[in-house]
Amino acid sequence: MLVSLPFGASASTKTVTSYPVSSGVNYSQYTYSGSSYINHLEVNLGDPHTKLKMGVPSPIAKTAPTLTLANRDSKEGNRVVGAVNASFFDMKTGMPMYLLSEGNEIVNGGVISQSNSYYVSHPIAFGVTKDGLAEIDNFNLGIQVGAKGNVYQMTGINRERQADETIIFTPQHYKKSTGSNEFGIEIVVETNAPITSTHYGQKVQGKVVKVRGYGEKAAVSIPSNGFVLSVHGKKGLERFKSLTVGDDVSLDLSIDDKWKDSQFMMASGPMLVKDGKRHITMDTSNWRATAKTARTAIAISKDKKQVHLVTVDSRSGYSNGMTLTQFANYLVSKGYDRALNFDGGGSTTMGIRKYGSNQVVLANRTTNASQRNISAIVEAVSTAPTGEPEIVSVSRSNIGEMLVGATATLKLNHVLDAHYNPIVPNASQLKVTSGKGTVEGTGLTYKAIKAGEDRIYVNYGSAEQSFPVKVVAEPAKLTVKASAKSVKPGEKINFTATPADASGKPIIYQPSQLTW
């Protein structure tokens, strides 16, 4: 495998490792400015076997580690080859904090903070649109309720009601009741048919069947054929306090055209890069931004076909992490067109598939030396089915000149197909030959037959690996050492003999080839 400096890298970037984990996904790790460890997954959406997907726990409020979610979703024809943590979440309830949707289905309603001292104070999302391209842009989620000739925009859907909010609860909420406190009113609306989905483009019409008044504490159940309007604050109460049983109420859900029919979308923030320049949509003097900590981001190219999943570590004795401004500057230096911040700190996690296994394993060093349970991930997926052997990797037990008659062994590391899917190896199918017949092989063992310089070929089906070999008739040097310089009658002394090549490096031989 060729290892090259990543595109746009400067003298302060040093590559530690870089290799493809599938036909459309490349993993790299490198240091930046000497102290920050960057882990990077480059995803080519132009590859026909490469997809990006969203992974969430089931049920949605049951958080799980990034690797657990990735391995749960990985199967033949849908191999998760890389993943990072994504959405921020409420550490008390486990619920994601911001909008998540898959297809047009609203998985989580989300909230937008009113203060730019928080990460998400603008409605911005990453997603894959209906044409299969990546996008990072603003969105406009429409949650409109019509009542008594007026239409009002709600502040959220299927999440906990906060102060001065009007929230809609549908049967797709993770709980059967709203859970809202008594400091508001709740209006139960039923329609003529079950509501089996909550999605963009949905329009429903129903009638009020129950009103829980202000100060009442009774739990309000969400009807399977309707929704609940949960109201708090002076403005909301003025709008809806006159609704009574029998009144008509409508609900209309919508999203911007660019996000309609998207494969998935995930709201997060702040935006870090826009049009190739630093563009941070939060107060960069706030402690959340100035802390040097672990960070996770997703970035896209201008043509929206290349997606970059990026983490920077923060762990004592390993990496200092970055401030948000430093992280944005780094992403700009890489030449990305747009970038969006994901949850960081102890949540920052990257998993990758390593050669020879379909298991997704940890790539970065997590802040707390363990994985945090999180609420959503972005998965890099290879849809290529497992094919015929194309890549074989072996390592030698010993490297050096071989003495005629000596044997050496190989270790079979892995066998992969053209898309880097692992193939369960069978050592008996391994064939070892040499171009000039200087060695002969059986399985994982090969023997030197005659002197000469040659090349050994290791074949597993059509997969091949080769390496040079030199066989000699006798060593150039023979060094004998004793365990002591003198010995008394009755004592023992040990001698060792080391055959070597002309430069003094040990050669490969059999102990039986030494005669004392």
Describe what you observe in this structure.
The structure is a single chain. The chain has 516 residues and is mainly β. The chain has 4 helices and 38 strands. The longest helix has 10 residues, at 324-333. The protein is elongated and about 110 Å long. It starts with 12 loop residues before the first strand and ends in a 16-residue tail after the last strand.
Low-confidence stretches: 1-11
**Could you tell me the strand content as a percent range?**
35-45%
Class of secondary structure makeup: mainly beta
| Count of runs of 4 or more consecutive helical residues | 4
Number of strands: 38
Please summarize the sheet with the most strands: 8 strands, antiparallel
Which strand order does the major sheet show? 1-2-3-22-21-25-19-20
Q: Considering DSSP H and I runs of 4 or more, what fraction of the residues is helical?
A: under 10%
Q: Report Rg.
A: 31 Å
